[in-house]
Amino acid sequence: MKKEETLQTVLQDTFAVYTQVLDRQEAKLRSQEIGIVQSIGQGIAKIIGLPNVQSEEIVRFTGGSLGLVFNLDPEEVGVVLLDSSDQLQSGTQVQRTGKVLDVPVGDTLLGRVIDPL
Known about the structure:
The termini are far apart. The protein contains 1 helix and 6 strands, in the order αββββββ. The longest helix has 23 residues, at about 1-25. The chain has a 6-stranded antiparallel barrel with strand order 1-2-5-4-3-6. With about 120 residues, it is of the alpha+beta class. It has a domain at about 35-100: Beta Barrel (Elongation Factor Tu (Ef-tu), domain 3), CATH 2.40.30.20.
């Protein structure tokens, strides 16, 4: 009889710990928009499949290259390539970052001229 009581106690303690752990967990889901490179030429990539992208938003290509959205058409998005385009080709995936281009301001920027793209 003692073994059954011990087993019951262990099971109750185990399930109590499981319940505590589950109560602390939160589902952290986030949606991602992923587009596809349709064409590349002269430092510009044409992207399809990013319906909610913003003008001047930074996008990340597979491989880590970055681009700046500059042209929003209903069928495609024009992106200025900020990195080398050697690895990019038609069919490469592009992901939104949700961040627009910005310049951090501080003492190191004082007296400097910012030349826009």
